Give the backbone structure.
Amino acid sequence: MKILHVLLSKLSLPPLNYGGTERVVWALAKAQEAQGHQVRFLWGAADNLPANAAVFDKSVPIEQQIGDWPDLVHFHRPYQGDLAIPYICTEHGNAEGQREYGQNTVFLSRRHAENHNATCFVHNGLDWADYGEPELTHPGDYFHFLGKAKWPIKNLVGAVAVARLADVKMKVIGGHRLNFSRKFYFYPDTKLDFVGMVGGEKKNALIRRSRGLIFPVRWHEPFGLALIESLYLGTPVFGSPYGALPEIVTSSELGKLSLDYRELADAVANVGRYDRAHCHEYARENFNHFRMAGGYQACYERVLDGESLNATAPFSTQSWHDLLPVND
């Protein structure tokens, strides 16, 4: 099959450091090529792109740039235009208000789909060869938070509260100690280490040495790459039961989900009860890029056979970015 992936991102492909969606698209394409498919990309004006990527030209209709090469177009953005070639769209985010989607839209988790009045979803997967081996026996003396610290929905405030209640050190991956933006915050705590926005091996090394991910998000996380990256590198997850988290942290052996910070802190304080090897093996088996590619292959075949991925067009009537309650 000839597959064209469309994402008008300005981040390099593969992403050099940060870039979660870009990393997923790259991993999916690598799995598809390994399975014998031909893959190309229509991308934004990024600094570094592979030879099989074309740069989107704003002055030319996207349908013209797609041309007649692909058997199927996989948009990683909303699209409801007039395209003669079969296509699907993956929605990687949450609606911020009233919104309609194409009938062949794929979401990232069962809850993500349900929130947008849809049924079709494919869990993300990653190419674990990019992550190295986990540290299963001698982790460091800290936990980690992974996400954009200035976004209230990611709930750095709650992660800090849990770490303080458990009296543990925590490295904050995704922000600085002092933030002067509209979401001002300042944490002078000596047990908190802010490492900024890092990616690649630097991020992997920090997670690999961590004892666990503290992730009490206050929104319905569409999927959460931070969860599977952390599990693969051997760390259990301590978070809220919102969005896709219960679909990823599916047993008490993988961590603890609760809206009560004290319950999470108790689990964090007793992190030794969790088996790092089990966390690693679970993520490796269930969230690899070949498994994701299999899910999308099923979607492609349905669309090529003339079926629709959802019985009706998905839609949202509300914002899924509003803060959800927790028991702090």
